[in-house]
Write a structure and sequence with these properties.
49% helix, alpha/beta, Arc Repressor Mutant, subunit A, Rossmann fold, globular, 7-stranded mixed beta sheet, homodimer
């Protein structure tokens, strides 16, 4: 047979990335991401057990992962391990999964949202687990490393994380800064329990205090923050805007008061409609999802600075995260 | 304020592409893709009318499109037109929309599909419209141009398209080859009606015969194919495999008999698990979706050649489409 391969030089990046995102979302749905990322080699048996599916199905899924280059042979016995770029692929997939899966209700029901945002917002809600999973995949490289290195560089004796989730950031800080203590504050009970368990497993359980409370509660009672050197808040303040702006201001003011002299407030949040070529498209969808569908207000860098100054802070530094449209605001007491 | 932009050189392509796909899927859901792609400038008013949404909502959506660079100012009066790369962006979005939206039931219910493929296949079906829309976006650059140029280069007097859909390929052929006639065969009644209307609008209605029938019916009655110089079949044969392989063979054999001497059979289809770096990921998901979830068998290039030779054809040429994992098989009578 004659073979002509005229088009083989054109790279269809979108096709490539979407395929990977599908296979990794499947891994998450099957509950086998831990198996795929573990140190020791695995096979269809381990996938079948973790996913509680027949081994034939697990084998065909594993074959697909190998064909796509997400896993590679680990030994001559036929076992597999994650490919070297697995973490990068998971990171990239996070963006696709957040935009096109976690926020899918907004895409599917856009006409209803444009006709009656309040009613549609009540009717079509996102799946919180899908949001959390995609955010973690994105965060692994997009905002987590810079937040962590900033905190560790400050060599804090006490760190607070507002909206700490499973306290991953704090546990890594406690491991990196001997003798330090930390407070994980989160509204979600199951995240709090998971945080406490993870801290114990990591051997820092005695240095982590878990507080199951809303960020808003800090406006009335800032006691868990007392004496902190660093207070971190990632993507939590914008949830109070615009409806609870006075509460957000009170929280920020209490953060200032609670910090030790020289302490650092570190806020990661999204700024609206960044116009540069690298960020404009993702920035648009983040802004549009928040404004039109979740009816939130994102603050500009200038508005963040104003808020921080108003709360008592001095010089503010704005650092661009790798996450397009994401910024890390650092303010000193 | 201090600004540090350390990460601004890293390009997050996945974030960029996913954001665009979301905005374009929204355009499709709103029914405004035609407005965005039309020659004359448009504004929020035209979007509001086409989508039947309030003008405020249309304006905020239009603002998002502009912020993402999908539309640009067309004049000083504030009207917009599609950006120069709009068609390319729609094409890229097709892959993401096909993999992550049109086939989403397979991702969401993978555990059930691995446990009981037959039952899950009956329970979780794809939205045919989402499949058709995404396929059209991909096809616009991935397989349509090569199929069209191949047909036109043959200067046929009569062309048949098996699974013609809305007969876009045939209408363009009729416009490009004066005096030629064509037969559009498709099972879908509404697609057939749309084909007839589109042909009339294009001024070739008298040269197009629309036949509302299944591909399978050609095994029993090949009369619509008689005297064709080119018979085209895009992504339709694999739907008969493996369950109706004898029917597929009979259709192919009847195609051979119906063609004039020197006539061309042109089949576009997906080949399974292509291992090269450019195609392997998308090829995997196409193959896996078909095998595990739709229980179809994709033929290798060698298997296609065998089938074509068995039907009577001579030399076969295999041309790689830009569509990863897609091949155009050309066989002569």
């Amino acid at each position: 047979m004659n073979d002509r391969n005229e088009s083989a030089t054109t790279r269809e990046t979108a096709a490539d990335m979407a395929a990977v995102a599908s296979l990794l979302e499947m891994a998450d749905r099957l509950g086998v991401l831990d198996v795929l990322q573990r140190e020791s080699p695995f096979g269809a048996k381990e996938i079948a057990e973790a996913a509680e599916v027949p081994q034939a199905g697990a084998a065909s899924y594993l074959h697909a992962l190998a064909a796509a280059g997400l896993v590679v042979r680990a030994d001559d016995a036929g076992a597999f391990r994650a490919a070297d770029d697995f973490a990068d692929r998971l990171y990239e997939s996070g963006y696709m999964s957040w935009v096109l899966n976690a926020n899918r209700p907004f895409i599917e029901h856009i006409a209803e949202f444009l006709r009656d945002p309040v009613r549609a917002g009540a009717q079509y809600v996102r799946d919180g687990r899908q949001v959390a999973v995609a955010s973690q995949w994105m965060g692994s490289q997009a905002f987590y490393p810079k937040a962590l290195s900033t905190i560790i560089e400050a060599r804090p004796s006490r760190v607070v994380d507002l909206g700490a989730g499973t306290a991953r950031l704090l546990i890594e800080t406690l491991l990196a800064v001997p003798g330090s203590t930390a407070v994980a504050l989160d509204l979600d009970g199951s995240a709090c329990r998971e945080a406490a368990t993870a801290a114990k497993l990591a051997g820092v359980g005695d240095r982590l205090t878990v507080v199951e409370r809303s960020i808003q509660s800090v406006a009335d009672d800032p006691s868990p923050l007392e004496g902190a050197d660093v207070i971190h808040a990632g993507f939590v303040f914008h949830d109070m805007l615009p409806d609870e702006e006075d509460v957000a201001d009170a929280v920020l003011s209490n953060c200032y008061d609670a910090l030790r002299p020289g302490g650092i407030m570190a806020i990661t949040d999204a700024v609206p409609f960044v116009p540069n070529e690298r960020e404009r498209r993702f920035s648009t969808i983040v802004t549009y999802y928040h404004q039109q569908f979740m009816r939130r207000r994102l603050l500009t860098a200038e508005e963040w600075q104003e808020k921080l100054v108003k709360a008592g802070f001095g010089g503010t530094t704005c650092i661009a995260h790798r996450f397009p449209t994401g910024r890390l605001f650092l303010a000193h007491k």
